[in-house]
Specification:
Order of helices and strands: EHEHEHEHHEHEEHEEHEEHEHHHH
Structural class: alpha/beta
CATH class of the domain at 9-201 and 234-260 and 301-322: Alpha Beta
Bound molecules: nicotinamide-adenine-dinucleotide, 2'deoxy-thymidine-5'-diphospho-alpha-D-glucose
Largest sheet: 7 strands, parallel
Strand order of the largest sheet: 3-2-1-4-5-6-10
Protein backbone atom coordinates (compact mmCIF):
# COMPACT_ATOMS: atom_id res chain seq x y z
CA UNK A 1 0.00 0.00 0.00
CA UNK A 2 1.27 3.52 -0.85
CA UNK A 3 1.96 5.76 2.16
CA UNK A 4 0.37 9.20 2.52
CA UNK A 5 2.67 11.93 1.30
CA UNK A 6 3.82 14.02 4.26
CA UNK A 7 4.25 17.69 3.37
CA UNK A 8 7.94 18.43 2.84
CA UNK A 9 7.17 22.03 3.90
CA UNK A 10 7.24 20.56 7.42
CA UNK A 11 11.03 20.35 7.20
CA UNK A 12 12.22 23.94 7.47
CA UNK A 13 15.84 23.69 8.54
CA UNK A 14 17.31 20.49 7.18
CA UNK A 15 20.84 19.64 8.30
CA UNK A 16 22.63 17.59 5.64
CA UNK A 17 25.86 16.01 6.85
CA UNK A 18 28.58 15.19 4.31
CA UNK A 19 26.94 17.41 1.70
CA UNK A 20 30.22 18.12 -0.11
CA UNK A 21 30.71 14.44 -0.92
CA UNK A 22 29.43 12.50 -3.91
CA UNK A 23 25.85 11.58 -2.92
CA UNK A 24 25.32 14.43 -0.46
CA UNK A 25 26.11 17.08 -3.08
CA UNK A 26 23.75 15.44 -5.60
CA UNK A 27 21.06 15.33 -2.88
CA UNK A 28 21.42 19.03 -1.99
CA UNK A 29 21.28 19.95 -5.68
CA UNK A 30 18.16 17.79 -6.11
CA UNK A 31 16.35 19.45 -3.19
CA UNK A 32 17.24 23.06 -3.93
CA UNK A 33 16.68 22.83 -7.68
CA UNK A 34 13.49 20.77 -7.25
CA UNK A 35 10.03 22.14 -6.62
CA UNK A 36 9.10 19.92 -3.67
CA UNK A 37 11.29 21.40 -0.91
CA UNK A 38 10.91 24.99 0.23
CA UNK A 39 13.08 25.03 3.36
CA UNK A 40 16.73 25.79 4.08
CA UNK A 41 19.67 23.39 3.95
CA UNK A 42 22.54 23.58 6.40
CA UNK A 43 25.38 21.54 4.95
CA UNK A 44 27.87 20.34 7.58
CA UNK A 45 31.02 18.82 6.17
CA UNK A 46 34.51 18.28 7.58
CA UNK A 47 35.99 18.51 4.08
CA UNK A 48 38.10 15.38 4.24
CA UNK A 49 39.92 14.35 1.05
CA UNK A 50 36.46 13.28 -0.25
CA UNK A 51 34.64 16.54 0.48
CA UNK A 52 34.83 19.08 -2.30
CA UNK A 53 32.95 22.41 -1.98
CA UNK A 54 33.43 22.90 -5.73
CA UNK A 55 30.66 20.27 -6.16
CA UNK A 56 28.20 22.90 -4.90
CA UNK A 57 29.81 26.20 -5.98
CA UNK A 58 26.86 27.09 -8.25
CA UNK A 59 24.33 26.09 -5.59
CA UNK A 60 25.99 28.37 -3.01
CA UNK A 61 25.79 31.21 -5.53
CA UNK A 62 22.22 30.57 -6.71
CA UNK A 63 20.56 29.89 -3.34
CA UNK A 64 22.16 32.30 -0.85
CA UNK A 65 19.01 32.43 1.32
CA UNK A 66 18.38 28.71 1.37
CA UNK A 67 21.87 27.19 1.50
CA UNK A 68 24.35 27.50 4.36
CA UNK A 69 27.71 25.75 4.52
CA UNK A 70 29.44 25.03 7.84
CA UNK A 71 32.82 23.34 7.89
CA UNK A 72 32.55 21.05 10.91
CA UNK A 73 33.41 17.58 12.13
CA UNK A 74 30.38 15.59 13.31
CA UNK A 75 32.68 14.10 15.98
CA UNK A 76 32.88 17.56 17.61
CA UNK A 77 29.75 17.33 19.78
CA UNK A 78 29.93 20.89 21.17
CA UNK A 79 30.28 22.44 17.73
CA UNK A 80 27.45 20.31 16.36
CA UNK A 81 25.23 21.32 19.29
CA UNK A 82 25.89 25.01 18.47
CA UNK A 83 25.01 24.43 14.83
CA UNK A 84 21.72 22.70 15.71
CA UNK A 85 20.78 25.62 17.97
CA UNK A 86 21.95 28.42 15.70
CA UNK A 87 20.00 27.13 12.69
CA UNK A 88 17.05 25.67 14.62
CA UNK A 89 17.61 22.33 12.94
CA UNK A 90 14.40 20.31 12.78
CA UNK A 91 15.55 17.41 10.57
CA UNK A 92 18.76 15.63 9.57
CA UNK A 93 19.75 13.72 6.47
CA UNK A 94 22.95 11.98 7.51
CA UNK A 95 25.42 11.17 4.72
CA UNK A 96 28.74 12.05 6.40
CA UNK A 97 30.96 9.00 6.58
CA UNK A 98 34.28 7.53 5.65
CA UNK A 99 33.00 5.59 2.64
CA UNK A 100 35.81 3.67 0.92
CA UNK A 101 36.26 -0.03 1.76
CA UNK A 102 39.95 -0.17 0.72
CA UNK A 103 40.81 2.75 3.02
CA UNK A 104 38.98 1.04 5.90
CA UNK A 105 41.21 -2.00 5.46
CA UNK A 106 44.41 0.10 5.55
CA UNK A 107 43.36 2.54 8.28
CA UNK A 108 40.08 1.81 10.07
CA UNK A 109 40.33 4.34 12.90
CA UNK A 110 38.64 7.27 11.17
CA UNK A 111 35.78 4.94 10.16
CA UNK A 112 35.11 4.13 13.81
CA UNK A 113 35.26 7.81 14.79
CA UNK A 114 33.17 9.33 12.03
CA UNK A 115 30.75 6.53 11.23
CA UNK A 116 30.02 5.41 14.79
CA UNK A 117 30.96 8.21 17.22
CA UNK A 118 29.86 10.95 14.80
CA UNK A 119 26.46 9.30 14.30
CA UNK A 120 26.09 8.86 18.07
CA UNK A 121 26.75 12.61 18.60
CA UNK A 122 24.08 13.59 16.10
CA UNK A 123 21.55 11.22 17.66
CA UNK A 124 22.20 12.59 21.14
CA UNK A 125 21.74 16.19 19.98
CA UNK A 126 18.59 15.31 18.04
CA UNK A 127 17.22 13.45 21.07
CA UNK A 128 17.73 16.51 23.27
CA UNK A 129 15.55 18.51 20.84
CA UNK A 130 12.49 16.31 21.42
CA UNK A 131 9.30 18.11 20.51
CA UNK A 132 10.81 20.36 17.84
CA UNK A 133 12.78 17.60 16.06
CA UNK A 134 10.93 15.95 13.16
CA UNK A 135 13.15 13.43 11.39
CA UNK A 136 16.58 11.80 11.42
CA UNK A 137 17.20 10.03 8.11
CA UNK A 138 20.24 7.76 8.14
CA UNK A 139 21.87 6.94 4.80
CA UNK A 140 23.40 3.47 4.89
CA UNK A 141 24.64 0.69 2.69
CA UNK A 142 23.73 -2.81 1.54
CA UNK A 143 27.21 -3.92 2.65
CA UNK A 144 25.89 -4.37 6.20
CA UNK A 145 24.16 -7.58 5.03
CA UNK A 146 27.47 -9.19 4.02
CA UNK A 147 27.95 -11.23 0.87
CA UNK A 148 25.49 -13.24 -1.25
CA UNK A 149 26.06 -16.49 -3.13
CA UNK A 150 25.17 -16.78 -6.82
CA UNK A 151 21.43 -16.42 -6.08
CA UNK A 152 19.16 -14.51 -3.70
CA UNK A 153 18.63 -10.86 -2.83
CA UNK A 154 19.08 -8.73 0.30
CA UNK A 155 15.83 -8.06 2.16
CA UNK A 156 15.33 -5.56 4.97
CA UNK A 157 15.08 -8.29 7.59
CA UNK A 158 18.26 -10.13 6.56
CA UNK A 159 20.73 -10.60 9.43
CA UNK A 160 23.64 -8.16 9.52
CA UNK A 161 26.95 -9.82 8.56
CA UNK A 162 29.37 -6.97 7.73
CA UNK A 163 32.76 -8.13 6.45
CA UNK A 164 34.93 -5.01 6.25
CA UNK A 165 35.75 -2.37 8.87
CA UNK A 166 33.74 0.06 6.71
CA UNK A 167 30.59 -2.08 6.64
CA UNK A 168 30.99 -3.00 10.32
CA UNK A 169 31.12 0.70 11.23
CA UNK A 170 28.03 1.41 9.11
CA UNK A 171 26.25 -1.57 10.71
CA UNK A 172 27.02 -0.15 14.16
CA UNK A 173 25.61 3.22 13.14
CA UNK A 174 22.42 1.60 11.75
CA UNK A 175 21.91 -0.20 15.06
CA UNK A 176 22.38 3.03 17.02
CA UNK A 177 19.82 4.85 14.87
CA UNK A 178 17.28 2.07 15.29
CA UNK A 179 17.95 1.91 19.04
CA UNK A 180 17.24 5.65 19.41
CA UNK A 181 13.87 5.06 17.77
CA UNK A 182 13.00 2.08 19.96
CA UNK A 183 14.33 3.45 23.25
CA UNK A 184 13.81 7.22 22.95
CA UNK A 185 11.10 7.44 20.29
CA UNK A 186 13.38 9.57 18.10
CA UNK A 187 11.69 9.90 14.69
CA UNK A 188 14.05 8.04 12.36
CA UNK A 189 14.12 6.37 8.96
CA UNK A 190 17.00 4.28 7.56
CA UNK A 191 17.91 3.41 3.98
CA UNK A 192 20.36 0.72 2.83
CA UNK A 193 21.45 1.29 -0.74
CA UNK A 194 23.54 -0.54 -3.31
CA UNK A 195 26.53 0.87 -5.26
CA UNK A 196 26.03 4.40 -6.64
CA UNK A 197 27.67 5.95 -9.68
CA UNK A 198 27.30 9.25 -11.51
CA UNK A 199 28.57 12.85 -11.42
CA UNK A 200 30.92 14.09 -8.66
CA UNK A 201 32.10 10.66 -7.46
CA UNK A 202 35.64 10.75 -6.08
CA UNK A 203 37.92 8.77 -8.43
CA UNK A 204 38.99 6.17 -5.87
CA UNK A 205 35.78 4.20 -6.54
CA UNK A 206 35.68 1.68 -9.40
CA UNK A 207 33.73 3.56 -12.10
CA UNK A 208 35.37 7.02 -11.96
CA UNK A 209 38.78 5.45 -11.35
CA UNK A 210 38.50 3.34 -14.49
CA UNK A 211 37.19 6.27 -16.58
CA UNK A 212 40.04 8.58 -15.58
CA UNK A 213 42.76 5.90 -15.78
CA UNK A 214 41.53 4.84 -19.22
CA UNK A 215 41.59 8.44 -20.43
CA UNK A 216 45.14 8.81 -19.13
CA UNK A 217 46.27 5.53 -20.74
CA UNK A 218 46.99 4.04 -17.30
CA UNK A 219 46.31 0.44 -16.28
CA UNK A 220 42.81 -0.51 -15.11
CA UNK A 221 43.11 -2.57 -11.91
CA UNK A 222 40.54 -5.34 -11.58
CA UNK A 223 40.61 -7.12 -8.21
CA UNK A 224 40.80 -10.94 -8.17
CA UNK A 225 39.01 -12.67 -11.07
CA UNK A 226 36.79 -9.62 -11.76
CA UNK A 227 33.64 -11.68 -11.26
CA UNK A 228 32.46 -9.96 -8.07
CA UNK A 229 28.97 -8.57 -8.59
CA UNK A 230 27.51 -5.24 -7.44
CA UNK A 231 23.98 -3.87 -8.01
CA UNK A 232 24.41 -0.38 -9.54
CA UNK A 233 22.17 2.65 -9.04
CA UNK A 234 22.49 6.05 -10.69
CA UNK A 235 23.04 8.64 -7.96
CA UNK A 236 20.01 10.84 -8.75
CA UNK A 237 17.76 7.78 -8.39
CA UNK A 238 19.26 7.24 -4.94
CA UNK A 239 18.60 10.90 -4.02
CA UNK A 240 14.96 10.60 -5.15
CA UNK A 241 14.57 7.42 -3.12
CA UNK A 242 15.93 9.08 0.02
CA UNK A 243 13.62 12.07 -0.42
CA UNK A 244 10.65 9.73 -0.95
CA UNK A 245 11.49 7.88 2.26
CA UNK A 246 11.94 11.15 4.17
CA UNK A 247 8.54 12.33 3.00
CA UNK A 248 6.49 9.15 3.02
CA UNK A 249 8.41 6.51 4.98
CA UNK A 250 7.18 5.05 8.22
CA UNK A 251 9.11 6.09 11.34
CA UNK A 252 11.45 3.44 12.65
CA UNK A 253 11.50 1.57 9.34
CA UNK A 254 14.36 0.49 7.10
CA UNK A 255 14.05 0.63 3.29
CA UNK A 256 16.37 -1.11 0.84
CA UNK A 257 17.27 0.85 -2.31
CA UNK A 258 18.70 -0.82 -5.41
CA UNK A 259 19.01 -0.50 -9.15
CA UNK A 260 18.00 -3.89 -10.52
CA UNK A 261 21.33 -3.72 -12.29
CA UNK A 262 23.64 -6.52 -11.24
CA UNK A 263 26.94 -6.52 -13.07
CA UNK A 264 30.32 -8.24 -12.77
CA UNK A 265 33.18 -5.79 -12.27
CA UNK A 266 35.03 -6.99 -15.36
CA UNK A 267 31.95 -6.36 -17.51
CA UNK A 268 31.73 -2.78 -16.22
CA UNK A 269 35.38 -2.12 -16.94
CA UNK A 270 35.00 -3.52 -20.46
CA UNK A 271 31.87 -1.43 -21.04
CA UNK A 272 33.66 1.76 -19.98
CA UNK A 273 36.56 0.90 -22.32
CA UNK A 274 34.16 0.41 -25.24
CA UNK A 275 32.17 3.61 -24.54
CA UNK A 276 35.40 5.62 -24.40
CA UNK A 277 36.78 4.02 -27.56
CA UNK A 278 33.60 5.08 -29.30
CA UNK A 279 33.26 8.68 -28.07
CA UNK A 280 36.88 9.57 -27.34
CA UNK A 281 39.28 7.15 -29.11
CA UNK A 282 42.80 6.85 -27.69
CA UNK A 283 45.39 8.96 -29.51
CA UNK A 284 47.52 5.86 -30.26
CA UNK A 285 44.48 4.03 -31.68
CA UNK A 286 44.76 1.18 -29.15
CA UNK A 287 41.66 -0.44 -27.66
CA UNK A 288 41.24 0.62 -24.01
CA UNK A 289 40.60 -3.04 -23.03
CA UNK A 290 44.36 -3.60 -23.47
CA UNK A 291 44.85 -1.56 -20.28
CA UNK A 292 42.93 -4.05 -18.09
CA UNK A 293 45.17 -5.61 -15.41
CA UNK A 294 44.01 -8.28 -12.97
CA UNK A 295 45.56 -7.47 -9.59
CA UNK A 296 45.67 -8.95 -6.08
CA UNK A 297 42.20 -9.29 -4.57
CA UNK A 298 40.81 -7.04 -1.82
CA UNK A 299 41.03 -8.89 1.54
CA UNK A 300 37.57 -10.13 2.60
CA UNK A 301 36.17 -9.05 -0.78
CA UNK A 302 32.38 -9.57 -0.77
CA UNK A 303 31.42 -11.70 -3.77
CA UNK A 304 27.96 -10.45 -4.62
CA UNK A 305 25.45 -7.78 -3.57
CA UNK A 306 21.91 -7.55 -4.94
CA UNK A 307 18.98 -5.66 -3.50
CA UNK A 308 15.29 -6.47 -3.24
CA UNK A 309 13.55 -3.07 -3.06
CA UNK A 310 9.97 -4.41 -3.25
CA UNK A 311 9.10 -2.67 0.04
CA UNK A 312 10.12 0.76 -1.25
CA UNK A 313 8.38 0.16 -4.58
CA UNK A 314 5.15 -1.23 -3.20
CA UNK A 315 4.74 0.94 -0.10
CA UNK A 316 6.17 4.27 -1.30
CA UNK A 317 5.96 3.98 -5.09
CA UNK A 318 9.67 4.53 -5.89
CA UNK A 319 11.57 2.81 -8.70
CA UNK A 320 14.80 3.70 -10.52
CA UNK A 321 14.48 5.82 -13.67
CA UNK A 322 17.92 5.33 -15.21
CA UNK A 323 19.09 2.11 -16.87
CA UNK A 324 22.67 1.04 -16.22
CA UNK A 325 23.81 1.55 -19.81
CA UNK A 326 22.30 5.05 -20.20
CA UNK A 327 23.53 6.02 -16.73
CA UNK A 328 27.03 4.76 -17.46
CA UNK A 329 27.19 6.65 -20.78
CA UNK A 330 26.03 9.85 -19.06
CA UNK A 331 28.64 9.34 -16.35
CA UNK A 332 31.49 8.79 -18.82
CA UNK A 333 30.40 11.92 -20.70
CA UNK A 334 30.23 13.91 -17.45
CA UNK A 335 33.85 13.07 -16.57
CA UNK A 336 34.90 13.91 -20.13
CA UNK A 337 33.20 17.33 -19.86
CA UNK A 338 34.46 18.24 -16.38
CA UNK A 339 38.10 18.83 -17.28
CA UNK A 340 38.64 21.50 -14.60
CA UNK A 341 36.94 19.45 -11.82
CA UNK A 342 39.05 16.43 -12.75
CA UNK A 343 42.25 18.48 -12.94
CA UNK A 344 41.58 20.04 -9.52
CA UNK A 345 41.08 16.58 -8.00
CA UNK A 346 44.19 15.17 -9.66
CA UNK A 347 46.46 18.05 -8.67
CA UNK A 348 44.89 18.43 -5.23
CA UNK A 349 44.13 22.06 -6.15
CA UNK A 350 40.75 21.92 -4.43
CA UNK A 351 42.46 20.84 -1.18
CA UNK A 352 44.71 23.91 -1.47
CA UNK A 353 41.61 26.06 -1.99
CA UNK A 354 40.09 24.57 1.19
CA UNK A 355 43.30 25.30 3.11
CA UNK A 356 43.32 28.93 1.91
CA UNK A 357 39.63 29.33 2.68
CA UNK A 358 39.43 27.61 6.04
CA UNK A 359 43.01 27.73 7.29
CA UNK A 360 43.73 24.02 7.55
P1 LIG B 1 31.90 10.42 0.04
O1 LIG B 1 33.12 9.81 0.62
O2 LIG B 1 31.91 10.88 -1.37
O3 LIG B 1 31.46 11.68 0.93
C1 LIG B 1 31.52 11.67 2.34
C2 LIG B 1 31.43 13.12 2.82
O4 LIG B 1 31.43 13.11 4.26
C3 LIG B 1 32.63 13.98 2.37
O5 LIG B 1 32.17 15.23 1.90
C4 LIG B 1 33.43 14.14 3.66
O6 LIG B 1 34.17 15.35 3.71
C5 LIG B 1 32.34 14.09 4.72
N1 LIG B 1 32.84 13.68 6.04
C6 LIG B 1 33.66 12.64 6.31
N2 LIG B 1 33.93 12.60 7.63
C7 LIG B 1 33.24 13.63 8.19
C8 LIG B 1 33.12 14.10 9.53
N3 LIG B 1 33.76 13.51 10.55
N4 LIG B 1 32.34 15.19 9.77
C9 LIG B 1 31.69 15.82 8.73
N5 LIG B 1 31.80 15.43 7.44
C10 LIG B 1 32.55 14.33 7.18
O7 LIG B 1 30.73 9.37 0.31
P2 LIG B 1 29.45 9.03 -0.57
O8 LIG B 1 29.81 7.99 -1.54
O9 LIG B 1 28.82 10.29 -1.01
O10 LIG B 1 28.53 8.34 0.55
C11 LIG B 1 27.66 9.12 1.37
C12 LIG B 1 26.92 8.20 2.32
O11 LIG B 1 26.19 7.22 1.57
C13 LIG B 1 27.82 7.40 3.25
O12 LIG B 1 27.19 7.34 4.52
C14 LIG B 1 27.90 6.02 2.62
O13 LIG B 1 28.09 5.02 3.61
C15 LIG B 1 26.51 5.92 2.02
N6 LIG B 1 26.41 5.04 0.82
C16 LIG B 1 27.25 5.21 -0.23
C17 LIG B 1 27.09 4.42 -1.36
C18 LIG B 1 27.99 4.57 -2.57
O14 LIG B 1 27.93 3.74 -3.47
N7 LIG B 1 28.83 5.60 -2.64
C19 LIG B 1 26.08 3.45 -1.39
C20 LIG B 1 25.25 3.29 -0.28
C21 LIG B 1 25.42 4.11 0.82
O1 LIG C 1 27.37 -1.31 -1.90
C1 LIG C 1 27.42 0.01 -1.45
C2 LIG C 1 28.85 0.43 -1.26
O2 LIG C 1 29.40 0.59 -2.56
C3 LIG C 1 28.99 1.73 -0.47
O3 LIG C 1 28.52 1.52 0.84
C4 LIG C 1 30.44 2.19 -0.42
O4 LIG C 1 30.55 3.44 0.23
C5 LIG C 1 30.95 2.32 -1.85
O5 LIG C 1 32.33 2.65 -1.83
C6 LIG C 1 30.74 1.02 -2.61
O6 LIG C 1 31.60 -0.02 -2.09
P1 LIG C 1 32.40 -1.03 -3.05
O7 LIG C 1 33.56 -1.56 -2.32
O8 LIG C 1 31.48 -1.99 -3.68
O9 LIG C 1 32.87 0.05 -4.20
P2 LIG C 1 34.24 0.19 -5.01
O10 LIG C 1 33.97 1.18 -6.09
O11 LIG C 1 35.39 0.41 -4.12
O12 LIG C 1 34.39 -1.24 -5.67
C7 LIG C 1 33.39 -1.78 -6.53
C8 LIG C 1 33.85 -3.18 -6.93
O13 LIG C 1 34.99 -3.04 -7.81
C9 LIG C 1 34.31 -4.02 -5.78
O14 LIG C 1 33.96 -5.38 -6.04
C10 LIG C 1 35.84 -3.90 -5.78
C11 LIG C 1 36.15 -3.68 -7.25
N1 LIG C 1 37.31 -2.82 -7.56
C12 LIG C 1 37.39 -1.59 -6.98
C13 LIG C 1 38.42 -0.73 -7.26
C14 LIG C 1 38.53 0.63 -6.60
C15 LIG C 1 38.25 -3.23 -8.51
O15 LIG C 1 38.17 -4.34 -9.04
N2 LIG C 1 39.28 -2.38 -8.79
C16 LIG C 1 39.41 -1.16 -8.21
O16 LIG C 1 40.40 -0.43 -8.50
Amino acid sequence: MMADKRSSAELENLLVTGGCGFIGSNFIRRLLEGADFTGRIINVDKLTYAGNPENLADIAKNFPQRYVFQKADICDAALMENIFQKYEVDAVCHFAAESHVDRSIKNPESFIQTNIVGTFNLLEIAKARAGQFKLFHHVSTDEVYGSLGPTGLFLEDNPYRPNSPYSASKAASDHLVRAYYKTFDLPVTISNCSNNYGPYQFPEKLIPLVILNALAGKSLPVYGDGKNVRDWLYVTDHCDAIWTIMNCGKKGETYNIGGNAEMENIKIVELICDILDEISPAGNGNARRELIAFVKDRPGHDRRYAIDFTKLRQELGWKPQESFLTGLKKTVQWYLNQKKWVENIKTGAYQKWIADQYGN
